[in-house]
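A protein record in our archive is deliberately plain, so that people and models can read it alike. The tokens are whole numbers drawn from a learned vocabulary of local backbone shapes. For reference, a complete record is included directly beneath this paragraph.
>
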Amino acid sequence: MRPSGRELSELRPIAIETGVQRNAEGSCLIRVGGTEVLCSASIEDRPPPFLKGSGQGWVTAEYGMLPRATTSRTRREAAAGKQGGRTVEIQRLIGRALRAGVDRRALGERQIVVDCDVLNADGGTRCAAITGGWVALRLAVNKLIAAKQVLGDPILDHVAAVSCGIYAGQAVLDLDYPEDSEAGTDGNFVMTGAGQLIEVQMSAEGAAFSRVQMVQMLDLAEAGVAQLVSAQKAALG
């Protein structure tokens, strides 16, 4: 039995509310169980310097966690004068994931920055950030299309992410914090709407896992991402 009482293949309740920041070209608040992430997409009419003159655009991300997103206060990284290694790793993952779903030449020489701020953390914050970040990106690109600033649709496919793990010896989908903190294996799966893999992060936190267990987690992830994509579509109408 999972601490939440969910089935092994059951996602936490998902809600995606769009248009929550009036000044952003695209924004949403994604809730996955007790995890809540505010995502916004900002269009900059110039690419980063290394792409100037290339005819290609760029999508990047920044990630942060508010001090009381967790059970005890986490010090602001700005107060320390630099980002922590975990933050840098997660925002690079988000950027890589979102770029995989974009035709950067069709985007043109501009940059879209996706900001993901964790309001409440209960496991799976990076996965929620990717899933919600894509919705914010989609909304921002829709504005470019409506303004005829791009010739075609730069978005190639949906991008979403979900966690899986081995908890109490069984493969489970979408770990919350109680499971994540005790899981023998922890994995994050980033996929397209067509079910293609973008990135997989898997590591044994305790005992090593088998090939059979790896395939079980992949099967759970495929089904979970399909549900997340459906939630993205519903949020966008």
